[in-house]
Amino acid sequence: MNSVDLHTLTGAYVLDALEPAERAAVERHLADCASCAQEVRELSETVTRLGLAVAAQPGPALRDEVMRRIGTVRQEAPTTVRSARGGHVRPRWRWAPNWALAACFAAAVALGGVAVSQYEQAREAREQALQARIANDAVGAVLASADARVSTAPLRGGAVGTVVVSPSRNQAVFAASGMPAPPSGKVYQLWYNDGGGRMRSAGLMDSGTPAAATLMHGPVDAASGMGITVEPAGGSPRPTSTPVALLAFPTA
């Protein structure tokens, strides 16, 4: 412990990488060394800013270059500082061991990665909430339209399907009661039946809540009805399975 220059432990101190005895020694040193105390404040602020920064994850090339230079580039030229207790001036070398520099870099990258991940999760959650609100408003508008027409029909397995069509809005809403969840890795996909065997995608049902009302994507136009198929996750450009349900749109 006596052979270690306490001036070189500021980086490890900020990263909480010291043994209890070393940490206590550094804290005693900071009370007498204004220069080291200032360095600790600056390093703490830097690590915090790096952790909160919204930036791209550094690539492998950057990390390799930093690790290569750690062993060859000195941290900073020597400076002179005035002792907090006396008036004499003494030289101070601001060196840090290679492992401390590497630890600082690794911690900065880790904190930055966590911040980016948390930011992306929050952004995705906000976007999902916004899309859900827009969809709910659109569903409500179709159901509340003065010319809304409703048709109900039994589905396979005892489920019941209901479709509401609004000619003035050129939109349709579908809901199912008692419909089982699709098989693992599959989704329910809705289709407009344009006649003559032509089926046009109308989007996916929410696999987590198959009983919820779903705004069918795209305009109704001349579609006479709708169908439901089981498709791979993400949906298909055209039906790949026999429809599990076919419903005619209400005409009046």
TrEMBL record:
Membrane spanning stretches: none
Keywords, sorted A to Z: Cell membrane, Membrane, Transcription, Transcription regulation, Transmembrane, Transmembrane helix
Subcellular location per the Swiss-Prot or TrEMBL entry: Cell membrane; Membrane
Annotated Anti-sigma K factor RskA C-terminal domain residues: 102-244
Domain of life: Bacteria
Membrane topology: Single-pass membrane protein
Residue ranges annotated for the Putative zinc-finger domain, each copy included: 10-37
Stored PANTHER family: ANTI-SIGMA-K FACTOR RSKA
Protein name in UniProt: Regulator of SigK
Organism: Streptomyces avidinii
Lineage: Bacteria, Bacillati, Actinomycetota, Actinomycetes, Kitasatosporales
